[in-house]
Design a protein that fits this description.
DNA-binding; Multidrug-efflux Transporter Regulator, Chain: A, Domain 2; homodimer; mainly alpha
Chain lengths: ~130, ~130
DNA sequence: AATATTATGTTAGCTTTTCTAACGTGAAAT
DNA sequence: ATTTCACGTTAGAAAAGCTAACATAATATT
């Protein structure tokens, strides 16, 4: 739970979509969870909900597997990756915004439809899937 | 369908998530679809799948409704909005990437986990929900 | 070589989520 | 006084996801 890494952790995607985005079977995804390589959120009804971070991890896992590394190895590697990106905060720690605040912000910017302010946005790996 | 407006049109979100993101009931969302204010994609099994653009539109609809405008009015307004952002392409028309190409690209960048290249990314309204 | 482990596939039975269709409703317009 | 509008609510069906269990081809171990 560091810095501005907030929104990429928002649980949004059901497993069906994740299967497509990561090109993995449901079985594989659940297996990686069994081995604690990912920990997707759950709905009230116990359905998995994945965040962008989760999907990133799945892509990493997939890649590492293709390189012949096994669960144990991948777990170590991903742990290290986590370390690295954790407290190396040179980044300003922005205050966390509530959903409501976000929505009101959105509404304001939305009424001028065409010019979209490039404000305080940083983009990462998977965001590439959007836009 | 112009320019680089490609990925924002990717059908990703089930209605349950959209309800949360846009703070709307399922009934409302379906009602707006009945009135052709949105046209979300469908899965093989006929479940709605919303894109980021769809969610943007829903937020616009919500806002316009709160301003006392009715379906007919909103339809007109959204039509205009579409016009504006349509062929005013000063933006370079990048070649469309396939999912496979995207994934391979991702994999390559992913192996250096820390430095994320800020390459050719532009961000819009709802992307704010992520990151 | 025989056996065990890994990373999946497959199937079954069950629960959650979403779907359409229909009827109900308060506020506003006519 | 009635319609119309923008929803709420409910019912019944179907899709999508869940866990648990057994099956299996490769690979590793003994």
């Amino acid at each position: 739970m560091g810095g501005s890494e907030i929104r990429r952790t928002m649980p949004l995607f059901p497993i069906g979509i994740v299967m497509q985005l990561a090109d993995l079977t449901a079985r594989q995804i659940r297996y990686y969870e069994e081995h604690e390589l990912i920990s997707p959120a759950r709905t009230e009804g116990n359905r998995r909900l994945f965040s962008l971070n989760d999907i990133d991890r799945l892509l990493e896992i997939k890649d590492l597997l293709e390189q012949g590394i096994n669960m144990a190895g991948i777990k170590k590697i991903l742990a290290v990756n986590h370390m690295e990106s954790a407290d190396s905060d040179l980044v300003a720690k922005k205050p966390e915004l509530s959903d409501e605040q976000l929505r009101t912000l959105l509404k304001k910017e939305m009424l001028s439809p065409g010019k979209i302010s490039r404000s305080s946005l940083r983009a990462g790996d998977l965001s590439r899937f959007f836009r």
